[in-house]
Amino acid sequence: MTSQDPPWDAPVADQYTPDRQAPAGRHHQPEPHDPADTKHGITGKGLKGGQLGLLAVVVLGISSVAPAYSLTSSLGPTVNAVGLQLPAIFIIAFIPMILVAFAYRELNADSPDSGTTFTWTTKAFGPFVGWMGGWGLLAANIIVLSNLAGVAVDFFYLFLAQVFNDPALADLTGNKALNIATCLAFVALAVWVSYRGLHATKLVQYSMVGFQVLVLGLFIVMAVAHATSGDTPTAIGFSWDWFNPAKISGFDQFAAGMSLAVFVYWGWDVCLTVNEETKGGKGTAGKAGTTTAIAVLGLYIAVIVATMMVAGTGADGIGLNNPDNQSNAFAALASPVMGPLAILMSLAVLSGTASSLQSTMASPARSLLAMGHYGALPPRFATVSKRFGSPGYATIMAGAISGGFYAVMKVVSENVLNDTILALGLMICFYYALTAFACTWYFRHSLFSSVRNFFMRLLFPVLGGLVLTVVFFQTAVDSWAPEFGSGSELFGIGLVFVIGIGLLALGLVVMAITYLRRPGFFRGETLRKDTPALVVPE
Fold first, then answer.
1. Span 313-319, mean pLDDT?
2. Which of 34, 99, 448, 521 can pair with 460 through a Cys bridge, CB separation 3.0 to 4.6 Å?
3. DSSP label of 457
């Protein structure tokens, strides 16, 4: 063994080949691969494989969805949109999610790649559409990372207030400078853990996700007990009518509710983002994605029903339509429902938000890695930490951008959490629908080769993509009005529209600049558009 050879136990030993030795330094940047040498042009990026089994990937997916965070952020705005039909809209929103999840499974089984949407839409529609698909995914993740950090700040100071029995500590979140500084500290911590690779991520996630689910279970039991005992003035009786979508009055309300409800399921696709680092082959990530979505649906319905029973949908007290409760439902409900155990809910949301902040970091980091690897971004993004086998530079940049985005939005709008959630719905619909359509087009030559392919590659993806496309356009039209969302505006245009559509427009500008500076990707020199052979999968 020469002095330049890597040690046999190097975390990313699989990335070294006899004709390509690692350069000296802290990071390894793989040389570009020739797409013609590999099937469909998919090539390895130096990530450490075999780190996560099925259970670990499911836990990572649930952590990224962050049930406690998603519910506390979305229950108020969704009730404001659809009223008592809250359970109905959550179930309906699940349908396009699971249909899109099937599309992800098909694409992942054919071409497992950490770039997911970016890679698959490039292979289906070409580099320009693929680049925008990757941008949509990155924009959604950046928005949610900033939102996660903002919620973590709120619950951190609420937790301190409960520990020290000093309500004034909870009000510190209103101090803009302190709020931003605390947010950046949370982001920095998440970057540090994510930089250390998926092994460190896994150890953090098991404990935090387990604790979060246990506390939500306790909340369900106590909420139902309070609602049925008659000691809560806002309580309402359970009704099966809550599950009837026909009672939603108007398509505008339906679209607004769908956009918000879609947000709460978002995050399961992180299971596919780590597909190059899982055990058990390429099927593990696909199974984990659908398993995560189904598990989250069951938990959501139970929490929603219990919350509605104890809080009601009114605008008084702990009612879900009370403006003071809109952006953070559990902060208002924890003490009335759980009494002295309310601190557990604060800890659950805080730990769930912090763990999701860290696990969600995996998605944009690996998307940036893939875009850098295939030449769609500067090659620095393709660097992989030699010690941890993680996309080091991409992780740092994802954290820096999300922290900066939150700081700017906090200065622009006092209702940053509510507005970014609504804008996030636009981003999710955009890149999920694009991925679903990419599945059908990519496999177009085998759609009718079997009954299975007809459903999994044509019917399910197209239906899921169409629903999300309709929701995208309806939300975009509605969000133009300043009164949409929090009522914040910029030059007379609703802030939700400015954030959502503005980020997509910015993507076109960045893509044009990238095309001028790095035309190779856009000429198909690094990742080519292609179609698989007509093969019926086992």
1. 85
2. 99
3. I
